[in-house]
Give the backbone structure.
Amino acid sequence: MNRRSFLKKSMVASAGAFAAPYILPSGRLFAATGARKVNHVVFCLFAGGVRNFESIQKAEGNLMRAMLNGNEAITADILPAMSPLPNSPLPLPLQNYGTLYKEFRYGTGPTGHYNGHTTAVTGTYTAVDLNIRDNPANPTIFEYYRKYNSTSQSALNTWWVSNSLGPYPALNYSKYPGYGAAFGANFIAPTFLISQEGYDALGNMQSFTSSEEATIKNIRNFMNLNFNKKFKDNEVGVVNETQDVKRLQDFILDKFNKAVSGQYANPWNLANGGIMTNDMYNILFAEEIIQEFKPELMVVNMQDVDICHSNFTQYCNNLRKSDYAVAHLWNTIQNTPGMANDTIMIIAPEHGRNLNPNSIVDNYGRKALDHTSDQTSREIFCMVIGPPSVVKQGQVINSIQGESIDIVPTIANILGFDTGIPNGMLSGQVLQQSFI
Amino acid sequence: MVNKIKLLILDFIIAGLGSCKKETNVVYEVNESTVNTFGNPKERIKTTVEFISIAYQDLFGNTISAQKLSSLSVAYTAFGDKKLIEDMIIKNFINQPNTTIPTQAVMMADKQKFISETFKKIYNRNPGEYETWFMEKEITDNASLTPKMIYYAMMTSDEYRYY
């Protein structure tokens, strides 16, 4: 027995004494670590930048009635621009189902979208400004999950759902050595994929019978054996297991069929279907993923409030719509067997917006806001909601507690793999105040 | 090892000849040969844009338009499992009526020509003898095998990812 073999076997035996590891079919070794609080986490990013003034401080009235308690009237001058929205599908605002951190912080680094999102999914602040096609330098929560969780490593179990492209397709895995695409999440930008362009590219596939597929596989295998290189799947992104690929393709085709038959014209039966924003559609497709795959970890990105750079009033309106959509998502989770009462949802903006406006004035006389790393743009909120046996219900934390880098370790703790993450990888803390 | 095989073959021959015949000193041996991997030395992995545009060229015989490439790239970018999307793109391409994929009749009329031309088009090289034999046997033995299936199998193989 050589030294490497001996060490390998010794390590497996030692681990077995403490954590009962097991080898999954892929051959990778997983060690059971901590206990899970629940089996599913959905992290909603109110991306695009949201100020505490317009959200939890209700400076324009309660724009987020589905999430926050209170019936404060919306400021009269912008009220005519607000789209009619139905009441929340939930009996109570979301804050009643968990803990609200009113003074959360985006601690350091530029308050840009790349930085905000990267921090949210890696749990590490970054000062790198723009290389938007590049994968982040530090491992993402998806990679930690797939590398260290103890029950499943399938990519189907973790999703990164974004309502826009730009830098976001690169955030489903990092370039950190030892992590990467092999541990990445399934990224989807539904409003781009389920589109006319997407349908033209993908919606009219040649179908093969299972017998034909077997013949094709035989020929492909022969060709691969005769070629002197092995193409590594993860050189072109995250990889799904062979049996999952068909399921995913069928899922995508089902969305095309629904789109073609008009089922997405007004999917939530709103008074006016035209008020559906990209954020709302993004949540809609996140719900369909939840219903189909019941993922253990999902991060959902909303971006429509970013219109605040040029239109403050519309920012307020879109904040309302995203607020409604998040409540709709939680309602769907609670009506999805396998996820109901077994899911914790974390909601936080990626970062805030500036105290002082820029010079752009909208039709209602309101000045627009950017996000250029002033102190106000670091002030955000966070909400952790979940089953009453796990999450403290109706708790409001008014003092400055928690920051963006705490969300990744909190998710790892909820899903029980935090103790598997090597020391020093994460500097944030678990948001323990949220839990019973 | 070669000597052992020679001796083994010789033993069988001697046993087969029987004891009543005069012993003949016959030695059978296998010519030594070096087995090479098929294909040209393809070293570089196609980028996503290259993959799409080359596949289009291979299947439709003309260059993809910038507009179409842009549209395909959007769908390509919007999902993280690129191999899955590539598979869907190829399946969509070969399902188009205006591809240059030969018909079943053309394939059956001259199998070797079909194989040779398919390899040149898709892999940009001639097939090896073993490959020709394998493909011809597949076509002969499997009546349900279509040119589309062969194109699809080859365009989703490892070699097609490289150039």
